Amino acid sequence: MSDILIQGFEHLPGIHCGSVAMASLLRHAGIKLSEPMVFGLGSGLGFYYLQSEMISPSRQFTGRHWDMEENTAQILGLKLVAHYSTDPQVGWAGVKEAIDAGYPALVQCDLRYLPYWQSASSFNGHRIVVVGYNEAEAIAWVADTHFEGLQRVGLEELAAARASRAAPSFENQHVFWVLEPGKPRPVAEVIVEAIAKNAALMEEEVGGIGGLRALRDFADSVASWRTLDDAAWCYRFAYQVSERRGTGGGNFRAMYRDFLLEAGSICPTLDRNLAVSMTRTAEAWSTMARYMLSMSKFLAGSDDAPDKDPAALIVSLAEAVFQFESTFWDRL
Q: According to CATH, what is the number of the domain 4-32+80-179?
């Protein structure tokens, strides 16, 4: 049995798994948008703060909004339809059905189980696009973030990745999305609406783990991480998710700045100072992240650890980040 592949699918490597995947789905539907534009139209900037001894590390944050992909489709007047199942066979059958019908499947999974990542750490919020399969060889073909071309993944490995119960998705197994065909709204008409929605999400999100409220909790508690049993891992992971793990730097704020710059070229009435403000915010996040890495080395007693405890600098920068973010979203 030969490979069954979606014809005409084009994967353009990028920075962040979700925005790269969503850009691929839109491009296959004839809608060509840059990765920052997809992220911004999806009101993608967010903040979630998790504190639990049941996860590793026990303190984690992420800087993108969980519903970015759905938001992008919605604001363009399209439908990104979610398919849920706790049954791995039903979940895979749905992905196969989408591919057979010519629709790429946006799949959530844990990258730890994807062999080409070679990762020992779980991240169960990763997004890939499944575009083909060969059941005789028990493999699937997927498009993923910065990797060139399509990646070959064993069906058992893909099933394990989709079945993960790790953070941050926890119980959300075997979910995938399909973008339904439709005529999109013009980008120029929805940019301001997307920015306003992002402001509302940051300021109104409740539940204790999201939005500016969660950012306030983070700023107030980040110094206390040093007393935790996994303190060095908490600070090192915080550096990674701000600067290295597909964020584009500055905890996704640099990508949102790029969106604002592109948006300003499309909507001349958009305040150009917004991009300047977001640049400052991104730089503050990046600086704090570097001190978090230093703190991790300091606590671990690494040979290249700083001589002085950087805790005070982290606290100061966490407060600066909160103030910059509050001012930015209030201004909108």
A: 3.90.70.30
